[in-house]
Amino acid sequence: MTFTIFSITCLALVASALGCGIPEIKPQTIGSRIVNGQNAISGSWPWQVSLQQANGFHICGGSLINENWVLTSAQCAVMVNSHHVILGEHNRGSNDEPIQIQLVSKVIAHPLFNGKTFINDIALLKLSSPVTFTPRISPVCLPESNARIVPGTRCFTTGWGQTATITSPLILQQTGVPIISLAVCRQIWGQRTITDAMICAGASGSSSCKGDTGGPLVCESSGVWTLVGSVSFERSTCDPRFPAVYTNISQLRSWIDRTIAFN
Q1: Domain 8-43+140-251 CATH superfamily
Q2: What is the pLDDT of residues 76-122, one digit of tens each?
Q3: Which of 94, 95, 84 minimizes the C-alpha distance to 53?
Q4: Domain ranges of the chain
């Protein structure tokens, strides 16, 4: 992965200082293939959150970006004091995991989000109280503004979305997906569908699907994981032969910083 502003070494030093993007429990990233994915190692993606209704029904994923904020998809339509943010969860069928449950005090969707085209499909959730970081709960790093990722880079996406069996798994799933150039993605999805504020990944036998929306697409460099994308949309059949589309976090980094600073 190459960044336009920071060198890999500098990025790692900054991440270490900020305490982001370095899981204490290392993920299994070798031989990993959500649809056609595999069970994640418990606690190995510590920024992954589950957004749930009050009855425990999982609706979307999200990513913890600091002790007070979660990044997700605007289309998830999270509501203040209604939906729950579950941190540190691995097995949604277990009552024995050391999870933290938070309410949301503010929901700030991008003001130019378009629910038909999925342009600017991003929302920030301010938590009702600061998260306590643990080996199973810690934030992911954010990319610098306008950072670029080389097509072909193998990144990872995680979530509890539907799998190849069209069921929603209880265990957090992970899959490795290659980044696809916007030019190739536009040939598949159409010129007007894919904007510069989107990232395409997949078409390699695995994919994001319903229920993964808002969840992370992360890339690793020198042991540091950076949130490059947030699951936005895919084919209605979640066909793993086609790339899924993610909100490009680097293109919206300035909006993220301003929103957090003013709230």
Answers
A1: Trypsin-like serine proteases (2.40.10.10)
A2: 999 998 899 999 999 988 888 999 999 999 999 999 999 999 999 99
A3: 84
A4: 8-43+140-251, 48-138+253-261
pTM of the model: 0.89
Q: Are 124 and 62 in contact (CB under 8 A)?
A: no
Give me the amino acid identity at 23.
P
Q: Could you tell me if 103 and 132 are in contact, meaning their C-beta atoms sit under 8 angstroms apart?
A: no
CA dist 208 and 140 (Å) reads 19
* Helices assigned H by DSSP within the chain: 8-18, 182-189, 253-261
| Tally of CB atoms within 10 A around 162 | 20
One-letter amino acid for residue 134 of the chain: T
- Tokens read off for 177: 């997906």
| CA 201 to each of CA 29, 155, 234, 241: distance values in angstroms, whole numbers, following the listed order | 16, 8, 10, 11
Looking at the DSSP bridge assignments, the partners of residue 137 are 134
CB atoms within 10 A of CB 243: 25
At 195-247, the pLDDT tens digits run 999 999 986 655 566 668 999 999 999 999 999 999 998 876 677 778 899 99
- Looking at domain 48-138+253-261, its CATH architecture is Beta Barrel (2.40)
From 105, 24, 19, select the one nearest 68 (Cα to Cα).
105
